[in-house]
Write a structure and sequence with these properties.
The protein has about 230 residues and is mainly α. Helix content is about 75%, strand content about 0%. Helix 1 crosses helix 5, helix 1 packs antiparallel against helix 6 and helix 2 packs antiparallel against helix 5.
Length: about 230
């Protein structure tokens, strides 16, 4: 959850706490009572989406780290094949040309090159084994390529789920601000002659400003100001 969403979540929590403390003043069948009920549901939704967002972020990071380790292992296996092929050039001129390491660092380039290595090495397996390559060197490379592709899919899945949760969270936070704009004049009208409760509402409904860093502009605060929402 980013800073803007966190501040809106805290805002929703404060406003909901105010409503709970003044529950008798806002019957469930009134407009304001219904809006505070909507706020409570939004608060639950924000908590759930924030948790999902954090969970998917952690899972994506774990998949990324695992993928990095497998990537390095694949490259080491390919390098062993490449180095061995180069060592037999005297016996089999040109054989090493079938085992060029990929120039690109992309995942697709690595898997394509690894498959090309396996295809080229399969009919030459006895030659590699005679140079003390492990009996299952091709099987190990194939297994790592499958694992690597599985981790790519897992990483993409978690990143996609995180993006979806972030979009829904942003929408829920926007709804909180919409409710605040609707609730603010109602509560002020309700407590126009009650300074104490009005002060409590003002404190509860104030959206804390983001701490500024350097001279950068806070676009979220700017959007709030331009919308005419009191902070």
């Amino acid at each position: 959850m980013n800073d803007q969403n966190r501040r809106i979540s805290e805002l929703a929590t404060r406003m909901h706490g105010f409503a709970t403390a003044q529950e008798e003043a806002f019957p469930a069948d009134t407009v304001v009572g219904k809006r505070f009920a909507d706020l409570g549901l939004l608060l639950l939704k924000i908590d759930e989406l924030g948790s999902r967002q954090a969970q998917e972020k952690g899972s994506a990071k774990a998949a990324t780290e695992a993928k990095r380790a497998v990537r390095e292992r694949i490259r080491q296996r390919m390098k062993s094949i490449r180095d061995t092929a180069v060592s037999v050039e005297g016996e089999r001129p040109g054989v090493s040309q079938n085992f060029n390491m990929p120039d690109s660092t992309s995942d697709e380039s690595l898997t394509e090159a690894a498959r090309a290595f396996m295809a080229a090495a399969t009919p030459l397996k006895s030659l590699f084994l005679s140079r003390e390559m492990p009996e299952n060197f091709l099987e190990e490379l194939a297994a790592d390529v499958r694992l690597f592709e599985g981790l790519i899919n897992e990483q993409n899945l978690h990143n996609g789920s995180r993006t979806a949760a972030s979009t829904l969270l942003k929408d829920a936070c926007a709804q909180v601000l919409t409710l605040r704009r609707e609730l603010d004049p109602i509560v002020r009208n309700k407590y126009r002659n009650d300074p104490e409760r009005l002060t409590l509402w003002e404190a509860a409904s104030r959206l804390e400003r983001q701490a500024r860093k350097g001279s950068g502009n806070d676009s979220n605060d700017a959007s709030e100001t331009s919308a005419g929402v009191q902070t």
